[in-house]
Amino acid sequence: NPVYDRVDFESFVEFCLGREEDRPANALDHLERSLRIEPGFRMALVEYLSFCYQVDDLSGSLAAIDAYLNINPDDQEILIAAANLCLAFHRVEDGIRYAHLALMQRPEDVEPRVIMARFLFAKEMPAEARIHLDAALRSSDASPEAMYCLGRYFLDLGDYYRSRDYFERCLDADPGFYVALRDLQCCYYELGDFADGIDACERLLEADPSDAGSHYNLGLIYQRLGRTRLAVKFFQESVRQDPTFYKAIYMVAEYHYANGEFDEALKHFEEAHRVSAESSEALGRIGGPQALQALSQLTRDARAEIRIEALSALAMSEDERVLP
């Protein structure tokens, strides 16, 4: 019975994914084998592309995409997903191929236009890129996906005003478009619209209370507002939700350092270095355990002076940026 076999195969793949949700490399392997058995298995391909981002590896995804498109050449969503994957992994020529196929089917769509423009800019072909970008800006496509794509384009350029406007239009059309809301709160932060930024973060946390990034972003906003005690609570909650969140651990360490709590600062700087050994920021910040131990021997007056200077530096810091 082909129908029964199909349902059984899909259920088996879903079962395998459920077992491997914390091991994306293993899940990727299951999906790759599933696609070799059935190249037109769309659900498996969509999951496969998602796991490629998690493991930071294209692996055999382009071959799997091409095998699927040989069976389903008109699947616009897969073409755009493939182009976006190539954009993330800097595969310019392959990305242009997928974007071109998407535009052949629906030339009025904004997203493949913008993706094509980005690839052409990467190839140092600004005149050709501008043609596609101008077509995207003139398009009548006002879908949430189109507005988000343009917002993301301007966000990456650092044009926070224009990106904010497109993200807001995206959310007007679809209030549940949480990826746009996450990027919108980045714009609010950069533009100093902290009340709107707090509201955006709180909306994200209503949808997902375990969202470590939004807890962290709230911490950054309250730090900018000078409310460092409240800020550190959000940094700590971010670490509780994601113990490997390097930036949040680092900010907790900075808070303790600024308050003269050198033992706690040392513990968190070392933890930050442990979870991100490739980053020398935490280790360089404390100058090694010996420097921190020497600080603990300072007189009370000297400690107070350092605390005032550190708190001022922390409040004025512009180095940490909100997460995209």
Structural notes for this entry:
It contains 19 helices and no strands. The radius of gyration is 24 Å and the shape is globular. It has helices spanning 2-19, 24-37, 42-55, 61-71, 76-88, 92-105, 110-122, 126-138, 144-157, 160-173, 178-191, 194-207, 212-224, 228-241, 246-258, 262-275, 281-286, 289-295, 300-316. By secondary structure, the chain is an all-alpha fold. The N and C termini lie far apart (48 Å). The longest helix is centred in the N-terminal third of the chain and has 18 residues, at 2-19. Helix content is 77%, strand content 0%.
Helicity, in percent?
A: over 70%
Radius of gyration: 24 Å
- Overall 3D geometry? globular
Unreliable residue runs: 1-5
Q: What oligomeric state best describes the polypeptide chains here? A: single chain
What is the ordering of alpha helices and beta strands?
HHHHHHHHHHHHHHHHHHH
Please give the number of β-strands.
Answer: 0
- First-to-last CA distance: 48 Å
Note the total helix count.
Answer: 19
Indicate the structural class. mainly alpha
Largest beta-sheet characterization: none
Our estimate of the beta-strand percent is under 5%
State mean pLDDT (0 to 100 scale): 84
Brief characterization of the structure:
With 324 residues, the protein is an all-alpha fold.
List the helices and strands and how they pair.
Blueprint: H1 2-19, H2 24-37, H3 42-55, H4 61-71, H5 76-88, H6 92-105, H7 110-122, H8 126-138, H9 144-157, H10 160-173, H11 178-191, H12 194-207, H13 212-224, H14 228-241, H15 246-258, H16 262-275, H17 281-286, H18 289-295, H19 300-316
Helix pairs in contact: 1-2, 2-3, 3-4, 3-5, 5-6, 5-7, 6-7, 7-8, 7-9, 9-10, 10-11, 11-12, 12-13, 13-14, 14-15, 15-16, 15-19
